[in-house]
Amino acid sequence: MNRHHLDPWVAAFGLILLAQVQRLPLWLSLGACLAVVSGWLLQRHRKRGLRPLWLGVLAVLSAAAFWAYYRGQFTVDTAASFLVLTVALKWLELGRRRDLFILFFIQCYLAVVTLLFHQSMLWTGGLLASLFLLFTGLQMALGGRAQGMGVEAMKRSALVFVKMLPVVIVLFIFFPRIGPLWSVPLVSEQGTTGLSDTMEPGAITSLAQNDDPAFRVTFGGDTPDPGQRYWQALVLDRFDGRRWDRRSLNDREGISRVPEDASAGELADDEYEVMLEPHGRRWGFALADSVPASANVSLNRNGMVRFERSVDTRRRYRMQYEQPTEARRLSDAERRFYTRLPGGTNERTRGWVAQQRREVEGRRALIRHLMEHFNQKPFHYTLQPEALGNADTVDALMFETREGFCEHYASALAFMLRSADIPARIVTGYLGGEAGVDNEYLIVRQYDAHAWVQAWLRGRGWVRLDPTAMIAPERIESGLREAMQDQGGFLSDDPFSMNRYADVGWVNWMRLRLDAANYYWQRWVVGYEGQTQLSLLGRLPGDIDRRMLGVITAVLVAALILAGVGISLLRARRRHFRDPWYRLYDQWCRWLERQGVGAGRSDTLAAQVSAAGRRFPALAPDIRALGLLLERAFYDPGQPDQQALAQARRLMNAIRKRKSHGRSGNTATAE
């Protein structure tokens, strides 16, 4: 056991920790690094771990700190964090051969756990690299101290990976995907990037500096025009004077059109598929007049896309366009609810709206007048609006600052409509989307977050009204980048973002192709499951179901394993005839068989030497000397020299000649 060759394992742990450092607390990341480096140094200089007393104290303190930080939460996230802690502490315990094997296996397990949180091409490559380093380190730790052992260990590890590649491919394609029997939350109760289920001044403005993807969309038919890409997420219908929120968080009335997985079959012309990034909530996004086309989503009565569980991993679903149905009437209770406002707030705005009602006839005319007011007066669309205070925010916006972002103007319009006794509510979601490579899909990012208004009109139902379109029409048609071009505040908080420099030709070319590679990786590799698998394999002859998939997988894997064993045996046989030491060993085994010694090829070399020495005591010194040379050649990683090979051949020849002539002596050994 060579404990001086743990360097690859340190590098492997560094890669694994790098993949998880974003979700780990700082103290745990730094503590894990310190523990691993300390354990590595202990092995290099002292060849043993910490004393049990100190190790026990450190384990108790670490467990107490972990419990105090996570406060008893039980999620996959906390379990994975605890695994990081235990693996780091195991480095301080290394002292016996068994500890190295345990550390190898738990680091392999920790590497695979990374896939729960990162499934991109980049991190998958990092996972494979860490596994390769772990196997290389194991080869080095067991292989001795010969020069060049690191290169030789890397070659052996690469050979193992290449040999297993066919089995991995077969398992990936044919192994049946079975849903989990139970589940636990994936992430802790931590803040996630994306829309909130409430809206107040500044809520969406904060997302405008975030270029993380929110979701990607592939259309079966033509891509809608930019002005029609309103991706609805939440309906906010209750106002407390500053903040809008949702009346009912558990409104589950929904429909599902097609009883199949989201990724099955080709997209129809009236369908589109959304690949949603994890955001820890239970809602999705859809265009207006869309209904579910896959069984993993539903649509509630407010037009919200809902999931059964929180979106903790990427989720794919399909939607289908549907002709709008005749609008139902609002009940008296609903009308009262959608016109309700807190008393004693924004009195100037109330008075101004009352005056406009007297001057304009009809609800629709009043709505047009209010929308035109945003266009005719000097309102400004900005990422850095002046603070509105905690009370009378609508008054401050309409009569004082006259600058804001989409949530400011949407809130003001909804308030004015309600004060005019017109049912209104806020809708939050995203607007627009950037075309990917060759316009094959849309990328909707966090900075595309948007808020608009829906007003109820008799005979038409809920109608979309967007005051931002009256103030900054370029935001609707060209996106936030163009709208903020004159102000220069786009992604100012992230100077290293590639999206900030999209107007540079080669940067734009690179970022779009990197995104496309990751998108197709997620769609066809990570998303290859369930009905997608059955749909693909259904193109093969015969009726393939999950049971048949299991049979096919077992047969193919067994065939590959048998083929691998056969090839290995054939290579070993060829190696016997190529390697002079194996040829010499073959001569030795045949001599044992001819002499009737009670030990053969199935016995160890030591057993063969012992049996032959007992059978021929006069030849025992030569036999022991030959056995020692063979043992060194087979089990010492250093290459034996030609002098040792020549000596072994002389010993073998001497044993055969002396036995055949019935003589005894020890001349070969004397050399």
Name its key features.
four-stranded antiparallel β-sheet; alpha+beta; disordered C terminus; six-stranded antiparallel β-sheet; 23 helices; elongated; 16 strands; 4 domains
Write the layout of secondary structure elements.
Blueprint: H1 7-20, H2 26-45, H3 52-70, H4 76-90, H5 97-113, H6 121-143, H7 149-174, E1 213-219, E2 230-236, E3 238-239, E4 244-245, E5 271-276, E6 290-292, E7 298-299, E8 305-306, E9 315-321, H8 332-338, H9 347-359, H10 363-376, E10 380-381, H11 393-401, E11 403-404, H12 406-419, E12 424-431, E13 434-435, E14 442-445, E15 449-457, E16 461-465, H13 467-471, H14 473-478, H15 480-483, H16 505-526, H17 531-537, H18 546-578, H19 580-595, H20 605-615, H21 620-635, H22 642-661, H23 667-670
Parallel strand pairs: 10-11
Antiparallel strand pairs: 1-5, 1-14, 2-12, 3-4, 5-9, 6-9, 7-8, 12-15, 13-14, 15-16
Helix pairs in contact: 1-2, 1-5, 1-6, 2-4, 3-4, 4-5, 5-6, 6-7, 7-18, 11-12, 18-19, 19-22, 20-21, 21-22
Keywords: Membrane, Transmembrane, Transmembrane helix
Pfam families: DUF4129, TgpA_N, Transglut_core
Protein name: DUF3488 domain-containing protein
What does this structure look like?
InterPro entries: Bact_TGase-like, Papain-like_cys_pep_sf, TgpA-like_C, TgpA_N, Transglutaminase-like. This protein has 671 residues and is an alpha+beta fold. Helix 1 (7-20) runs antiparallel to helix 6 (121-143). The longest helix has 33 residues, at 546-578. It contains 23 helices and 16 strands. It has four domains: 7-143, no CATH class; 208-327 and 427-450 and 468-517, no CATH class; 332-424, no CATH class; 579-670, no CATH class.
